[in-house]
Amino acid sequence: MGPMRIAVTGSTGLIGKALVHSLRADGHDVVRLVRRTPGAADEVEWDPARQYVDTRGLLGCEAVVHLAGAGVGDQRWNEAWKREIRDSRVLGTAALAEAVASLDVPPEVLVSGSAIGYYGDTGNRAVDEDAPPGTGFMADVCVEWEEAAAAAVEAGVRTVYARTGLVVAREGGAWGRLFPLFRAGLGGRLGSGRQYWSYISMHDEIAALRHIIDTESLTGPVNLTGPQPLTNREVTKAMGRVLHRPTMFTAPAPALRVVLGEFAEDVLGSQRVLPKRLLESGFSFAFPGIDEAVRAALR
């Protein structure tokens, strides 16, 4: 495929920054939607809260990748932060989907961020994209978040919900907090350690987003998780192995609830999610195993 013009929201976030870098390295023309007065030629203004998008910036874009949203683990969950988590996703997605639908020549694809929180707590049961939504705050948010893209779907734009798992990266997200703890020899399992974590290496996350842009058969939900979800206990062992540190500490569930508030349920909850659609569409993982994913993050 030749160079494309691609618009990206959330370009200052963990995944967005890496995606923009990857696309530009391959010669694509990237337009970044920013929530302030544009200060560079590649920036376009938008304001999710006001439902405003400067649609001129979307003209000629073959793809739009929407990754903006308040960081789920950025602070202790209270009612105000939960509202911010929800509104930043739902309002932003609705604004962008409507902007895309209003264009005379809309993009071929809208890749709209979502999360494996959609499935709720699945316990030991493995789920793929055919599973129904679960219960709980994040599951409800993910359902609304995906439904907010309706205008793009109705306009005939191929719309994909990229349900991302736990991205193994040093720079941010859940793993960004784990690395310093484990490095200091303070790492250990969280709660019982029996809960499943569906992780994906940063490299594979970016490759999967690009695969979705390029693969016309993909539409609807696509799980961006590695092929081998592991329990928190197994992840803990791997972190100790790769970092050559002891992992004796345990964070008991009650302590996590005190520190994290309601977000603790997400850390203690079990999500065993499989990337069925990615694999069926011919995607191959560069770092499918936990040791490789952790090593890749340290490089």
Structure overview:
This protein is of the alpha/beta class. The chain has one domain: NAD(P)-binding Rossmann-like Domain (Rossmann fold), CATH 3.40.50. It has eleven helices and 16 strands. The strands form five sheets. It has an eight-stranded mixed β-sheet, sandwiched between helices. The mean pLDDT is 91.
Number of strands: 16
Class by SSE composition: alpha/beta
Measure the end-to-end span.
29 Å
Name of the top-level CATH class: Alpha Beta
Question: Could you give a quick summary of the protein structure above?
Answer:
The chain is of the alpha/beta class.
Layout of strands and helices, then pairs:
Elements: E1 5-9, H1 14-25, E2 29-34, E3 43-47, E4 52-53, E5 63-66, H2 79-102, E6 109-115, E7 126-127, H3 137-147, H4 150-154, E8 158-164, E9 166-168, H5 173-183, E10 188-190, E11 196-197, E12 199-201, H6 202-214, E13 220-224, E14 230-231, H7 232-243, E15 249-251, H8 253-260, H9 264-268, E16 272-273, H10 276-280, H11 290-298
Parallel strand pairs: 1-2, 1-5, 2-3, 5-6, 6-8, 7-16, 8-13, 9-12, 10-15
Antiparallel strand pairs: 3-4, 11-14
Helix pairs in contact: 1-6, 2-3, 7-11
